[in-house]
Amino acid sequence: MNPLLNRRTLMLGVAGVTLVGCGGGASADDPPKISYGKDTCARCRMIISEERQAAGLVAGNGDRTLFDDTGEMIATVQEEGLSSRRVWVHDYRSEDWIDGTKASFVASADVMTPMGTGVVAFTERAAADEFAASHGTTALTWDEVLQNWQIDTTMS
């Protein structure tokens, strides 16, 4: 057997496995990958640059919708519904990705966010309550923020 042919077959096999590993494994169970400074917000088209403010929706097939401001993501879900997409937000303090449906949210005009929505998320309810109290408001669950918070339509 031709050694060159065996080597070529091996290289093609390795390349195929690498491509499958890199592109095919995305799912809604994984937070979206964002290229900060390059990717743009689905709502306002601004470049996403602040990790702690970024949010995303990920469909079951791995398709992602990215936002530079958590409030813009919430407004989009209010308008379009969630469907089979999963909500991902960053914890305001740690900047870790968290499941948005389990997060606690604070919405305050005193909080600076990229598009001025003033909405930030927290993993722990106690941290959200403390932050909210310091801004003269109360923390909200995912369902409460969907029902009770309204984006200023002049923003987006």
How would you portray this structure in words?
- This protein is an alpha+beta fold and about 160 residues long.
- The chain is built from 4 helices and 6 strands.
- The radius of gyration is 20 Å and the shape is globular.
- Residues about 10-25 have low confidence and may be disordered.
Task: Using brief descriptors, characterize the structure shown.
156 residues, globular, 4 helices, two-stranded antiparallel ribbon, alpha+beta
Task: Describe the structure concisely for a colleague.
With 156 residues, the protein is α+β, with helices and mostly antiparallel strands.
Arithmetic mean pLDDT: 87
Provide the structure class.
Answer: alpha+beta
The SSE order reads: HEEHEEEEHH
Largest sheet: 4 strands, antiparallel
Strand order, main sheet: write it out. 2-1-3-4
DSSP summary, beta strand count: 6
Overall geometric form? globular
Strand and helix map with partners:
Blueprint: H1 3-23, E1 55-58, E2 64-67, H2 70-80, E3 86-90, E4 97-99, E5 104-107, E6 119-122, H3 125-134, H4 142-148
Antiparallel strand pairs: 1-2, 1-3, 3-4, 5-6
